[in-house]
Each structure stands twice: as C-alpha cells, then as structure tokens.
Amino acid sequence: MARYLDANCKLCRREGTKLFLKGERCFTDKCAVERRAFAPGQHGRNAARRRKTSDYNTQLREKQKVKRIYGLLEKQFRNYFVKASRKSGVTGENLLQLLETRLDNIVYRLGLAPSLKSARQLVRHSHITVNGKVVDIPSYQVIPGEEISVREKSRQLGLILSTIERRGKQEPVNWLSVDYKSQTGRMLEIPGRADIPVATHEQLIVELYSK
C-alpha cells in the first residue's frame, strides 16, 4: 500500500498552517510552521508571491489540507467523498463525519495516542479492540454505542501511558466518553459539524469534486 514517507512538517509548511501531525511537538517552539513559515523547497520563500489565487487553487489547497490532516491518499479521500455524496444531508458535513468516525481518528480523539499517525500504528499493530474484539483496520467505521479499548496486554505501552499522562486532564470531544483508568472509550453519537474540531471550509472541497 502506498504511504507518505517524507517529513510531516513539510505538509504543514506547504499548507501554511498547523495540521497537528506531530502530536505534542506542534504545541512547542520546535514546530516547523513557527520556525519556517514558508513553503518547503528551494523557492519556498517566494512561492506565496508567485502562487495563483484562483478559485481552483483555493479549493485544491482546502482539499489537500483536509486530506493531510486525516493522513489519506487521493484515492482514499475521493472514495470518502463519493460515499458522502450518496448520503442524505449536507455532503461536506457527511464527509467530515465519515473521516472523524474512522477508528484511528477515534483513538486519537480519545487521547490514547499523541497523533493520528501514532493512533493508526496502534490499530494496525492490533493494540485496539472494538466491543472486545481486536480490529486492526484503521478505516473501520465506528458507530454510536461501540466501545473502543486498549488490549489488556498493551495497556503498559509507554506511548499510551505517556499520552494519557499529558492529555488525561483534557476532556475529549463531547461526542465521545473516555475512562483513562481502564483505557476505554465509547462513541456516544455521530458528531455534528460544530462538534468536529477541524478548521476547514468543506464546501470548497465539494465544489472542487463537483466540477
């Protein structure tokens, strides 16, 4: 399966905003966006002056930003858009709901992993269960009422314990509940747009794919 293997910080610099791909590092002065607030590459410092500000460019950048926040490749992201467009309701909101309710994202939102990339690794390495059964598919769609837990034998992993220590005092998003003592969480409901902590104009993505 194709994967992005280059530096994650380049993605944030390319989009000109923090995508929070490196966990706690993004909140420190080591953040690449803070230190080098220009696009990567030899001509990065001058890219903003040369960049076209057409409607297409604006739509493309918004799509790239969201795609990178959730760590998806183009084909995966387009498939989610197709699925969202076939559901009733607002397509842009449907798209974000599908992305937010992926298992890897739920693990991250619960505060059991420092970044979405780390959460994906926990899922792939069979450290996470759904309703007591191991699920190693990051794209698994969680539904309301399902219980997400760290496997019993994985509960002493340093990555999980250190993340809980840092994030354990923070409340998760209001459509999730979590018990850090048992390293267990539950999805309470499908999130509404106001409950999804992603700063994006999803309608621009709909307009891009609708051309």
Q: What's the layout of helices and strands?
A:
Layout: H1 8-15, H2 32-35, H3 44-50, H4 55-69, H5 74-86, H6 91-100, H7 103-109, H8 116-124, E1 128-130, E2 133-134, E3 147-150, H9 158-167, E4 176-179, E5 184-187, H10 202-209
Antiparallel strand pairs: 1-2, 1-3, 3-5, 4-5
Provide tags for this entry.
five-stranded antiparallel β-sheet, 5 strands, Ribosomal Protein S4 Delta 41, Chain A, domain 1, 10 helices, 211 residues, alpha+beta, Structural Genomics Hypothetical 15.5 Kd Protein In mrcA-pckA Intergenic Region, Chain A
Descriptive report:
With 211 residues, the chain is of the alpha+beta class. Helices cover 43% and strands 8% of the residues. It is built from ten helices and five strands, in the order H-H-H-H-H-H-H-H-E-E-E-H-E-E-H. The longest helix has 15 residues, at 55-69.
